[in-house]
Write a structure and sequence with these properties.
Layout lengths: L1 H18 L4 H25 L10 H35 L3 H4 L5 H7 L8 H16 L6 H27 L10 H9 L11 H10 L2 H12 L5 H28 L6
Length: 262
């Protein structure tokens, strides 16, 4: 674990130095983030101009969900998606050999080696939306709810990382997987709404097949006083199982890799 943390810190420093060469990208990312927030707020305003609650969620509570979805989107776009897309490209081109010869765990290397810090603007804007929504909630947010929110948010990021790595590992069997980013983005946008508003089959699919429900709605429940201990237990158990499955699936994929030198 200590070696992995040191590796993460090293790649973060390198990513920061690399991104600082292109500072204009910050303004592009900031504009995209503000546009995403504006669209989310406009859609919320339109919905709540016709109703006072959506499946029991008030406008302020749903604002928290929108903020969590934007925040985690920043984590995905800055630290998870770039690495997974690079993995897919290297498997297709046979360039993964260079990474596999390094004396470190291959999964850690493919997961940490690229960081796009300007995309983390969404983390800031999403956090601001969460804070605004939490302040507007009538019953307030206690220290316990805030701590549970942070812990479940980290758990949600882990689940989304596992899901992305499973998709990217599929490139060991299916060579052309350049559509993954668009596919994931289309599915991820459903996280802007509480998981309970969807039909039963879609609700279970978005919770256990694509873990958006655990990643977005459950952390928001901690702030909106909707969280039950059974939900936490199920979320933690599912995260442990998915992490173990991801590790096994990754190793299975590596066995399929032939590389440019084969």
């Amino acid at each position: 674990m200590i070696r992995t943390l040191r590796l993460a810190w090293l790649y973060l420093r390198l990513g920061v130095l690399n991104e600082l060469q292109y500072r204009a990208n910050f303004f592009v990312a900031a504009f995209q983030s503000l546009l995403s927030v504006a669209v989310g707020l406009i859609v919320l305003a339109l919905v709540y101009s016709h109703t006072k609650s959506l499946n029991g969620w008030t406008e302020s509570e749903l604002l928290v969900i929108v903020g969590v979805q934007i925040l985690l989107g920043g984590v995905i776009h800055s630290a998870i998606q770039p690495n997974m897309e690079r993995l897919v490209d290297e498997v297709r081109d046979g360039k993964l050999d260079f990474l596999l010869t390094k004396p470190e765990d291959a999964q850690a290397l493919v997961s940490l080696r690229q960081v796009q810090i300007w995309q983390a603007v969404d983390v800031i804007s999403g956090s601001a939306v969460v804070v605004v929504g939490a302040v507007r909630i009538a019953h307030g947010v206690g220290a316990g709810g805030a701590a549970a929110f942070v812990a479940l948010l980290a758990l949600g990021a882990l689940l989304l990382y596992c899901f992305w790595l499973i998709l990217a590992t599929g490139s060991f069997w299916i060579v052309n997987m350049g559509y993954l980013a668009e596919l994931f983005e289309g599915v991820y946008q459903t996280g802007r709404w509480p998981i309970g508003v969807y039909p039963g089959w879609l609700r279970y699919s978005m919770t256990y097949l694509v873990p958006i429900g655990f990643a977005v709605t459950v952390p928001a429940q901690a702030i909106t006083n909707r969280l039950h201990w059974t939900t936490v237990v199920v979320a933690v158990g599912f995260a442990v199982a998915l992490t173990a499955f991801t590790r096994v699936f990754w190793r299975l994929g590596l066995r399929r890799y032939s590389g440019a030198s084969a």
